[in-house]
Design a protein that fits this description.
about 475 residues; 3 domains; Isopropylmalate Dehydrogenase; 18 strands; binds NADP nicotinamide-adenine-dinucleotide phosphate; about 35% helix; Alpha-Beta Plaits; alpha/beta
Length: about 475
């Protein structure tokens, strides 16, 4: 409830983190918001103490208890474990939504000044290639699994629509690479299209991610909310931060079912750490997002206006904004000016009526989607060999002769090379051999598959196998390039 004292976990972080966090605490206090900060450790010093995750249990307990955390940048010092403390926090609290608003602040110089950019990127934060499931499948071929779930898509799509609704925005773009990755990226697109009718007041459009990047640089003002998968979002949200003044100004939140964590997009900037030079705006705007999350809309508005006005008037700017050492002010002087400006409004910043974001509820069962029917119609067996495709194809025909399966095709990095004429593909020692049931009416059994693997294994080294499913009569696998 607004006005009530809240306890919030605070991790000042590394490098410029403590200076920026000191500014946040001063401004929030001056704005009259009652917060009890529970100061907790995380980052470089914790790694050095031998805590492999960079986040001690006391900090995790504090976040779990308070449900809201404000975090400074955390370093992963070289030579002290290799796990990122940021990723640990994101995964442990299932912070599935990374929300990064980008809004033009009048007075900030740049190529896009005056274009009134005001958009939010809503990035899925835990799935996709970032599940971190990687294997060397041959000494020279690496694989990373791109895992996308219906549940993950539904959560992020609903979050994007709820943000649009809470902020009175009129349109949500869904940006994917579904034209190429029809099943994984396509799942976000399909989920978006299924859920969109529940938000009839909001216009929707799907846009291919590469075109989205192009459009963002040409006509960024057309976007309001962009929902996207993890890898796409990682890249375009850095792009959008750059549109309106860069890292010193870019805030973010990480949203989960139970916990929300707020942080600047920037890192610890070791080159300026401890010098009273850092721009605390990104951290302050992250705190503004946090205040809205806890229902302190008036305080958030007051602080946001004071920040914008300070930058717009331009008397007291940190060096990244002043662009000259002589004309610039320190972090503390900039903070003092923001505090002096509390209560004043910028006439150039469009005010927006924020309402509480209704965090989405998505059925928590692991097996969220049930198929009425399922069949296994074959298997892809991945084989390591330096053979040419035709030698391998002939060997695989032979291996599967007189068995329940027959070879349908052989591909190399997604392109079908057997049967068929020789092609120019520059092959590597990693082939996919696709086998299907000779009797199309019969399902592949585990016994059929084990028999096949034994036969293939007698001829070549196989390293990976994938069943070919049909769910509700639809293939759960894609064709190779050139496969019919
Ligand atoms: P960075 O810390 O964001 O700094 C890059 C550069 O951006 C700085 O050298 C500085 O450049 C400028 N900058 C960033 N924030 C600024 C601010 N508030 N005010 C003024 N200038 C600012 O990126 P990095 O050097 O790649 O990363 C440093 C460390 O931070 C690494 O250990 C990395 O792992 C960590 N990191 C943590 C997080 C996180 O915790 N979420 C995020 C990113 C990076 P100039 O002074 O040269 O203009």
């Amino acid at each position: 409830m607004a006005g009530e004292r809240r306890t919030i976990t605070l991790m000042a972080g590394d490098g410029i983190g403590p200076e920026c966090m000191a500014a946040v605490r001063r401004v929030i206090e001056a704005a009259g918001t009652k917060i009890t900060w529970e100061e907790c450790d995380a980052g470089a010093e914790v790694f050095k103490r031998g805590v492999a995750s960079g986040v001690p249990q006391e900090t995790l307990d504090s976040i779990a208890r308070n449900k809201v955390a404000l975090k400074g940048p955390l370093e992963t010092p070289v030579g002290f474990g290799e796990k990122s403390a940021n990723v640990t926090l994101r995964k442990l609290f299932e912070l599935y939504g990374n929300v990064r608003p980008t809004r033009e602040i009048p007075g900030v110089q740049g190529v896009f000044a005056g274009r009134r950019i005001d958009l939010v990127v809503v990035r899925e934060n835990v799935e996709d290639l970032y599940a971190g499931i990687e294997h060397m499948q041959t000494p020279g071929v690496a694989q990373c699994l791109k895992l996308i779930s219906r549940k993950g898509c539904e959560k992020i799509v609903r979050l994007a629509f709820e943000i649009a609704r809470a902020e009175g925005r009129k349109k949500v773009h869904c940006s994917t690479k579904a034209n190429i990755m029809k099943l994984t990226e396509g799942l976000l697109k399909r989920t978006f299209e299924e859920i969109a009718p529940e938000y009839p007041e909001i216009a929707t459009e799907h846009i291919i991610i590469d075109n989205c990047a192009h459009q963002l640089v040409r006509y960024p003002e057309q976007f309001e909310v962009i929902v996207t998968t993890n890898m796409n979002g990682d890249i375009i949200s850095d792009l959008t931060s750059g549109l309106t003044g860069g890292l010193g100004l870019a805030p973010s939140s990480n949203i989960g079912n139970d916990v929300a964590m707020f942080e600047a997009v920037h890192g610890s900037a070791p080159n300026i750490a401890g010098k009273n030079l850092a721009n605390p705006t990104a951290m302050l705007l992250s705190a503004v997002m946090m205040l809205r999350h806890i229902g302190e809309f008036a305080a958030a508005d007051k602080i946001e206006n004071a920040i914008c006005l300070t930058i717009e008037e331009g008397h007291t700017l940190t060096v990244d904004l002043a662009h000259s050492q002589e004309l610039s002010s320190t972090t503390s002087q900039f903070t003092d000016e923001i505090i002096r400006n509390l209560g004043r409004r910028s006439s150039h910043v469009a005010s927006r009526e924020y309402r509480p974001i209704k965090l989405p509820y998505v059925d928590p069962r692991p097996d969220l989607v049930h198929a009425k029917t399922r069949r296994v119609v074959g298997a892809d067996v991945f084989v390591e060999t330096a053979d040419d495709p035709h030698t391998l194809g002939a060997a695989m025909e032979q291996a599967s002769a007189d068995s329940s399966l027959k070879l349908k095709m052989v591909s190399n990095r997604g392109t079908k090379l057997y049967p068929g004429p020789k092609q120019m593909t520059d092959c590597v020692d990693h082939y996919r051999c696709r086998f299907v049931m000779r009797d199309a009416a019969r399902d592949l059994s585990d016994a059929d598959l084990l028999n096949l693997l034994q036969r293939v294994g007698a001829k070549r080294t196989w390293m990976h196998v994938e069943k070919l499913y049909e769910f509700d009569g639809k293939p759960g696998f894609t064709k190779a390039q050139g496969e019919d």
